[in-house]
Design a protein that fits this description.
nine-stranded mixed sheet, golgi apparatus, 10 helices, globular, alpha/beta
Length: about 350
């Protein structure tokens, strides 16, 4: 069973930032206090920058609103979405820590089947600190968890695994559904707690949800761009999906791992399906062309850093998706701006290079 109690000494206390996008007071942090209080928070305030966001006392945090984003990035602030939770990726950019955990403000502490509170952050850290197995599927799921191992027939040459770049958590109560599914299943709730963590195989894409997500910023940070969404854009609610597709292509190329499963959070609030449909409707039919594009995407051997991979991918987006809609030309340019802004705030280190197809 996954451990659910807080550690006496919090794991990675000085190496991890918690990034929270919000438009409202952060009262939800009270429930998370036992698990989050030792860590530094980066709050990205969306919407009206003149509004004051209340943060409960006792938390160590920095808060950025749109004025701060414009001041820090100047003209490059155009790559950061407005009036959309995609603005959270600004927090990834200004962080100086090795790891990021990001969570939405309508996500509460879930309970495991025994009734214990789940320390989602601790489980993400465990996922990130243990290897992944993207090249060969283990039928007992994560072989590095207590009580599991590699099954008979698993190649010994692959048992060392590869570094884990991303830990993708799940949700009890309100599932992360698209608008059409919300409309036909308005009362559906997820009550299934599956005690499993697994590596998503190489060559397999998945729909990444940004509301309960951990990642190694040093390994994959520049690929975690949540795109152009929200105000002034023709699409919303595809920010985390876009980041997930780009990230997975790059992880596959660089030989990095992505895990999904535990930990669960309690997703408390269903968003309005009619509002969601308005945001999603272009994406719902665009994705039928986007998915084959990412499935077929390959990166050259010269792409030895995440930045190089991302810039090459942006060229392919412009060349191959520009005919789907002009939006993708604009998005490809924003991908380049994002990398330029990232490198300005985070000067590249030569040690970030990974041999093609091998872990660090």
């Amino acid at each position: 069973m996954a451990q659910t109690s807080a550690s006496p000494t919090p794991l990675l206390k000085d190496e991890l930032d918690i990034v929270i996008p919000t438009i409202r007071n952060l009262d939800f942090l009270e429930m998370w206090r036992p698990f989050f209080q030792p860590y530094h928070l980066i709050i990205v305030q969306d919407g009206d920058p003149s509004k004051t966001i209340h943060v409960p006392e006792g938390f160590d945090y920095e808060l950025y609103n749109r004025n701060d984003i414009n001041r820090i990035l100047g003209p490059k602030a155009s790559c950061i979405s407005f009036k959309d939770s995609a603005c959270r990726c600004f927090g990834y950019m200004v962080s100086k820590k090795k790891y990021i955990f990001t969570i939405d403000d309508d996500c509460f502490v879930a309970k495991d089947p025994s009734g214990k509170d789940i320390n989602a952050l601790e489980q993400h850290i465990k996922n990130l600190l243990s290897p992944s197995t993207p090249f060969f599927f283990n039928t007992l799921y994560d072989p590095y968890r207590d009580g599991a191992d590699f099954v008979r027939g698993y190649p010994f040459s692959l048992r060392e695994g590869v570094p884990t770049a991303v830990s993708h958590g799940l949700w009890l109560n309100i599932p992360d559904y698209d608008a059409p599914t919300q409309l036909v299943k308005p009362l559906e709730r997820n009550s299934r707690f599956v005690d499993a963590v697994m590596t998503i195989p190489k060559g397999t894409l998945f729909p990444m949800c940004g509301m309960n997500l951990g990642f190694n910023r040093e390994l994959i940070g520049p690929a975690m761009y949540f795109g152009l969404m929200g105000d002034g854009q023709p699409i919303g609610r595809y920010d985390d999906m876009w980041a997930g597709w780009c990230m997975k292509v790059i992880c596959d190329h660089l030989g990095l791992g992505v895990k999904t499963g535990l930990p669960y959070i309690w997703h408390s609030k269903a968003s309005n399906p009619f509002v969601n449909l308005k945001k999603e409707y272009k994406g719902i039919y665009w994705q039928e062309e986007l998915i084959p594009f990412f499935q077929a995407a390959t990166l050259s051997k010269d792409c030895t850093t995440v930045q190089k991979c991302y810039l090459e991918l942006s060229k392919q987006v412009k060349a191959k998706l520009g005919n789907v809609d002009d939006y993708f030309i604009k998005l490809a340019d924003a991908m380049v701006t994002w990398i330029e802004a990232w490198d300005e705030l985070n000067p590249p280190k030569s040690s970030a290079e990974l041999p093609n197809g091998k872990g660090k």
